[in-house]
Amino acid sequence: MTTSPDQSAIPNSYADVANHMDWSKKSSSPFVTTSFSFAWAIWEATRRYKSNPKQAVEIAVIDARAVAGRAVTALELLRKGAPKERHQDHWKWYRFATEAQDVLIYGYVPGTAVLSSIPILSLIPKLPSYFLNPNPNEEEKNFFGNLTWDVTQQRSGYQQFCQQMSEQFLRSSTEVRLRDTTTSSVRLAMCFLRPWFQRFALKDFQGAVDNVAELAYIIARWPGQWWVREHTEIWDLIQSMVHVIGEEVRDAQRIHALNEVTRLQGVVSELQLLTDEFMSVHSRSGSEDSADEGDPPETSSAPVSAPAPLVPPEDTQLLPGKTPSTVETASCVLTSFLFGAFAALFVVNSQRRDLALHFI
Question: What is the pTM (predicted TM-score) of this model?
Answer without folding.
Answer: 0.69
